[in-house]
Design goal:
The protein is of the alpha+beta class. It is 29% helix and 24% strand. It is built from 12 helices and 17 strands. The structure holds one RNA strand.
RNA sequence: UCCCCUGUAGCUCAAUCGGUAGAGCGAGCGGCUGUUAACCGCUAGGUUGCUGGUUCGAGUCCAGCCGGGGGAGCCA
């Protein structure tokens, strides 16, 4: 039962006896000295495969070893030795090779050892993790997720499991997926509409688009909390930066204002970048070499540079004076478009930028109203922030929340939102309300930022997007 | 949802003005070599996304449908 992980075998001393288990990447044969084969075997425990050296004297050399192809599963007994060849320090001199699982038809194996396009591999999502690139993405994704929990745990933030199914339709962050057990061919009606009273929950239910409103309730008792789970948006967006199902990290801090908020976001991003560069140095070196040249330097630059904090009003000023023709208009009160955000973070500042204090009309009802005249703005602003990073654009969106019941109600009225739908959210402002703030970080966009992967569908194991729900 | 590009061997792509379907990689077999993006030779592999139309003749032109990609919007 006991065997050695390839990660450990590669770090062990020559002379060590071991058994490894894994899958064949490549096999190269030599006729020298009665037969000699070099088999690269990987088991996913690290980026590299280990080289197994199989000699012709093995019992099953002619019958099995020389017939091994990419993806065959094998178990190898042997002793570690300093490699006589270039390219690796140690290798396994095999004393026995047992084939655990053959590839039934190597000619039609969908992921042979050759170059593939990302688009093709996306159609082979169940097999693509066997490639260098997707194995590295999977390990980096894990490292980032583990880093998120460690970061928060070290700072006394509690992980709160907010619900996936939500009965409130007031999250207001986009189109939702309906959850229902009603017979679609025979929908019960009442008063001209669907009678949701007969549905599973006795009311309309949807998949969550954000855990924020729920996590605020726990923030109002535990002080520092976060959620980290899947969220769902039924938007018909077809881009390399959007998914219908994606994971989001949403901390919420009590007794905090907007500056505490971006400080936490900046600290977390830098912590995670440093963490992944250290813990997954092998995979990050691969991304730097094969996916995006200069990736590691770019990330180190982000770690070392303080984020630039920029009021929205000032950002509009910079954009309107920029010597650049934009497709969309730049005007105070309009939301910034991708091209504007990209200009600020990629061309003007060339570093992550925290844009704060947006006009209230382009932001959500729960964001805290700023005092009139903040930043010299010509209109009302709210304590919102977006963090923009080169290459991705918006990676974090957050705000200080409106903790004053009167101001919150005024915003609900302004936006024609029925107060009764928000009864439990309003209760938080009635019973021991405190200033608090939080943000959402798109986990897949963070992985894109860390790996240089161009398409968000390639940093999640099984992407869900419009007309894409295979596997 | 909008704009643009695209669909040919397992994969990546050629195929001139509409005139008999090609290569590389991968795979199989053989050769060579402590090999490592190995190398050399041979072999197999095709309803050109689907349906219809124009034509003596369609991978190529036209229409519809389906799939894939890039950009935009929406956002994280």
């Amino acid at each position: 039962m006991a065997w050695t992980k390839i990660k450990d075998a590669l770090a062990a001393s020559p002379g060590t006896e071991c058994t490894i288990k894994g899958w064949v990447r490549t096999r190269r044969d030599s006729k020298a000295a009665g037969g000699l084969s070099f088999i690269a075997v990987h088991d996913g425990t690290c980026h590299d495969a280990i080289q197994v050296v199989a000699k012709g004297e093995l019992d099953n050399y002619e019958s099995e070893v020389v017939k091994l192809t990419t993806a065959c599963a094998v178990e190898v007994d042997g002793v570690l030795a300093e490699s006589k060849g270039q390219g690796q320090s140690v290798e396994v001199q095999a004393s026995a090779i047992r084939v655990i699982g053959w590839v039934e038809d190597p000619d039609t194996y969908p992921v042979p050892q050759k170059r593939h396009t990302m688009e093709y591999l996306r159609e082979q999502a169940h097999l693509r993790v066997r490639t260098n690139t997707f194995g590295a993405v999977a390990r980096v994704r894990h490292a980032l997720a583990a880093g998120v929990h460690r970061f928060f745990d070290e700072r006394d933030y509690y992980y709160v499991h907010t619900p996936i199914i939500t009965g409130s339709d007031c999250e207001g962050a986009g189109e939702m997926f309906r959850v229902s057990t009603l017979d679609m061919l025979n929908v019960p009606t009442a008063e001209g509409g669907v009678d949701y009273d007969q549905d599973f929950f006795g009311k309309e239910a949807n998949l969550t688009v954000s855990g924020q409103l729920n996590v605020e309730t726990y923030c109002s008792a535990l002080s520092r909390v976060y959620t980290f789970g899947p969220t769902f948006r039924a938007e018909n967006s077809n881009t390399s930066r959007h998914l219908a199902e994606f994971w989001m990290i949403e901390p919420e801090i009590a007794f905090a204002d907007l500056s505490d908020n971006w400080a936490l976001a900046e600290e977390m991003l830098k912590y995670l970048l440093d963490d992944v560069l250290t813990r997954r140095a092998d995979d990050m070196a691969f991304f730097d070499l094969r996916i995006e040249k200069g990736l590691i330097d770019r990330l180190k630059h982000v770690i070392e540079t303080p984020f630039r904090v920029l009021p929205y009003t000032e950002a509009i000023d910079i954009l309107s004076k920029a010597n650049k023709r934009f497709e969309y208009p730049v005007e105070w009160g309009l939301d910034m478009q991708s091209e504007h955000e990209r200009y600020l973070t990629e061309e003007h500042f060339k570093q992550p930028v925290v844009v704060i204090n947006y006009p209230k009309q382009i932001k959500a009802f729960y964001m805290r109203m700023n005092d009139a005249g903040t930043d010299g703005a010509p209109g009302d602003t709210v304590a919102a922030m977006d963090i923009l990073v080169p290459g991705i654009g918006e990676i974090v969106g957050g705000s200080q929340r409106e903790e004053r019941l009167g101001a919150l109600d005024a915003r609900l009225d302004e936006m024609n939102l029925p107060k009764e739908d928000y009864w439990w959210y309003r209760d938080l402002r009635r019973y021991g309300t405190v200033p608090h703030a939080g943000f959402g970080l798109g986990f897949e966009r963070l992985i894109q930022f860390c790996t240089g992967m161009q398409n968000i569908r390639d940093v999640i194991p099984f992407p869900r997007a419009p007309r894409q729900c295979e596997f």
